Amino acid sequence: MSAPAYQLPGPLGAVDSVLGGAGTVEYLLLGLLLVNVVTRLLAHRSHVSEAGDDAERLSRHPLHVASNVAMILTAFYYTTLDQHAGIVASTLILGLFVTDLFEFEARNAELRRGVDLDAPKGAIGASVLALLYVGYLSLFQFVAPFWSAIV
Q1: What is the DSSP code string of 22-84?
Q2: What mean pLDDT do residues 27-33 have?
Q3: DUF7313 domain spans which residues (predicted)?
């Protein structure tokens, strides 16, 4: 995708000039989603070790919180560049964020009940869905010639 035909006023215009358009932001979103998967794994390991230490409440992993915030802000910024794809990506990423919130509270409930902590299956599923869509947005250009030859 090409850069927008207009320049956004204020601080977003400066971000536009640095990032250079929607294509760069798609790769940034893909990278942030992959980082989020890794930080989710680190957070789950941290929660399991906290549960083993008989903690009364789990703490949020700061890297996972930072990756969630960066992902949401980038998705909202992408909406200013490509409205349709940005709204779909923002919806999927907000769904992932809400799923993360509920998964964290579910782990706290499991800790209070004294059962083993379960993996964050809902958040993993939401991550896969968001990764598929953002991967399609950012990587389809590499398979487009083959795809158009078949279809």
Answers
A1: HHHHHHHHHHHHHHHHHHHHHHHHHHHHHHHTT-SS----HHHHHHHHHHHHHHHHHHHH-HH
A2: 95
A3: 12-151
Is residue 3 domain-resident? no
Residue 7 resides in a domain: no
Radius of gyration of the chain (CA): 18
Residue range(s) defining the domain that contains residue 74: 20-150
Query: What single-letter amino acid sits at 146?
Result: F
On whether the pTM is more than 0.90, the answer is no
Q: At what angle do helices 62-81 and 11-19 cross, to 10 degrees?
A: 90
Reading the block at residue 125, the tokens are 């599923």
Domains in the chain, number: 1
| 55 Cβ contact list (under 8 Å, min separation 6) | 111
